[in-house]
Amino acid sequence: MGIIGFMSEIDSDKLKKDNKKKDLGPPLKILLADDTAVNLALATKLLKRRGHDITAVENGLLAFEAFKQDTFDVVLMDIHMPVMDGLESTAKIREFEASEASRPATAIIAMTANNEQSDHEIYLKSGMNGIITKPLDIKTVVTQIREIITSFSG
Ligand SMILES: [Mg+2]
Q: C or N: which end of the chain has fewer Cβ atoms within 10 Å?
């Protein structure tokens, strides 16, 4: 094992310990969709640093395609995106899940800078399971994700 491999092993051990300390639990497999490159890169970096496995895509259609190819613990979905927005992508994902009996429903969380409660209610009625507001807060985002997943799965 080279020095770099050795270092990254130490890093990931340290990360796991840190996660335990903060009670952040096991790593999650996350599908992340946002059309703003900076947001996507930032969220990816932030979640990867916490040990999560991230698939990052830039619109709702790519999110839907990725969802059909793989399974995820949670989907983090921007609302406003070109090609296919977050609500349409959510509808497609829910339709796909309904057609695949063996597939359990996956929590979909809106990531939005929009703070309007009435809009949040629309998102929740459209098949999303929770809302996280942008800019993402480093200290609370993973806790928020876990709380939403837990309340979604029962
Ligand atoms: Mg957007």
A: C
Say if CB 34 and CB 54 are below 8 A apart: no
User: Does domain 25-153 sit in CATH 3.10.310.40?
Assistant: no
Distance 22 CA to ligand 1 centre (A): 30
As a whole number of angstroms, the distance between CA 52 and CA 63 comes to 17
Q: What is the pTM of this model?
A: 0.84
Place of tokens 């890093």: 11
- pLDDT tens-place string over residues 34-78: 999 999 999 999 999 999 999 999 999 999 999 999 999 999 999
CA 34 to centroid of ligand 1, rounded, Å: 6
**Chain segment 5-45, per-residue pLDDT in tens:** 555 555 666 666 665 555 567 899 999 999 999 999 999 99
Find the 85 Cα to ligand 1 centroid distance in Å.
8
Domain definitions of the chain by residue range: 25-153
Instruction: Give the span between the Cα atoms of 113 and 136, in whole angstroms.
Output: 9
